[in-house]
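Support reply, case 0932

Customer input (verbatim):
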Amino acid sequence: MNDPLADEKTSRASIRRRGREPGGPRSHRFKVSFNDAELAIVKEAADRENQALASWVGQAALAVATELVVPVSADAKVVLHELIRSRGQLRRIGNNLNQVAYALNSEGEVTDAQIKAVLARVHEAVRHVDEATLQVMRERQPRS
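Our regenerated output:
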């Protein structure tokens, strides 16, 4: 027969707890309230990290308070992803420009169409990076 207490002990043993801090035991407690949707989101995040809910909330709060983690909106995450993607694209385009310069320097043949294609990619990639950068700057909130 399946022992519910054994199953409960097994599931609890797999949750990673936050380690003890060198400052001594944590004696200060406070209540945090969530609605159902918020609680589901926070529980999912704690589960992803394999942590107990209170441990995850405490660790996340400390990380933000000590600026180890800077919270960003979902829109900002999309913008940051675009910046990362654009940086890779610019790196590839820079390689193309180096190949064009090498061909020109070694008296190779480079057509106007090839140069225009590379420059069009440069212009498009720079435009994407500029837009993403401006979006991040608009969303950035000054710290006081």
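We compared this against your earlier run and they match. Two observations from our side: The chain has two domains: 12-65, 74-139. The helical segments are 4-13, 36-48, 53-65, 74-105, 112-139. Please reopen the case if you see a mismatch on your end.
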